[in-house]
Automatic annotation (TrEMBL):
Protein name: LysR family transcriptional regulator
Molecular functions per Gene Ontology: DNA binding; DNA-binding transcription factor activity
Start and end residues of each HTH lysR-type domain: 1-58
PANTHER family: BLR3139 PROTEIN (PTHR30419:SF31), HTH-TYPE TRANSCRIPTIONAL REGULATOR YBHD (PTHR30419)
GO cellular component: cytosol
Species lineage: Bacteria, Pseudomonadati, Pseudomonadota, Alphaproteobacteria, Sphingomonadales
Pfam families on file: HTH_1, LysR_substrate
Keyword terms of this UniProt record: DNA-binding, Transcription, Transcription regulation
Family from the record: Belongs to the LysR transcriptional regulatory family.
InterPro entries given in the database record: HTH-type_LysR_regulators (IPR050950), LysR_HTH_N (IPR000847), LysR_subst-bd (IPR005119), WH-like_DNA-bd_sf (IPR036388), WH_DNA-bd_sf (IPR036390)
Superkingdom to which the source organism belongs: Bacteria
Amino acid sequence: MQLQHLRYFTALARERHFARAASACGVSQPTLSAGLSALEHDLGKRLIERDRRFIGLTEEGAAILPWAEQVLGAVRGLTHASAALSVELQGEFRLAAIPAALPLVGAFGEALLAQNRGLAMSVHSQTSREIERGLAANTFDAGITYLDHEPAGNVLSVPLHEEQYLFVARRGTGFDGRTCVDWAEVAEMRLCLLHQGMQFRRILDRQFADCGLSVMPPAIADSYVSLLSLVRSGEFVTIFPAAYADLVSGLDWCLFLPFDAEPAPRRIGLVVVDRDPMGPMARAGLLAAQALQRVGKVG
């Protein structure tokens, strides 16, 4: 069994498309298909449902997927451990971050790359549940996610930021001159929010429920950029993490207001798998996060 064939298999499971999987692996589609057939032959099992296109994984394919991810993750960790014996850590540091934490990756990346000149950082926007699965499978070296709500298991963490809410509206839609808003009035507005598969939305729904309220937004999205575009139309309002206000503070049409009753802040921080021995990439991430924590640079 060849490791490259496992890479083809996990890429196809991720991309769910033969051409995209081949592109992700840097090979031709016939090469990818031949490698997948060889893997099926080696295991004596049909792993992929196909009919000129990818349909899905078979039951056997779904069963071996997490093992394939762990094998590839272990090989990657072995490579990094070997590289760590050199003067400078080399390679790609894979960071996963929840959308609410994306404004924090700049400061973290600056600290990480200042301490490790031989690294390149790749950032992946993921849900908190995807981060937990990816860390367990060694797909990511570290994640930036919520620490208190639905916390990931078997991780070491470094708090970096305390999240707060901001109400967002277009100027000229009735909120100019206001200094704050309250939860009850916002619940009655035309809201656009993230979908409920994202933890920020689940926490927000819980906050409304704590106030005896519920919301049924007429528009949902999976990114804050989409929400901002909807607000710009003048037809919607939304709720953002305060960290985003600094990123878009130069937008003259955009109005940010605090809530009159802000709930307790939600901690966001870096997490790595609590593993012995700890991989050099995870250790580098922890050290960078601890440096940020000491200087209070993230907030």
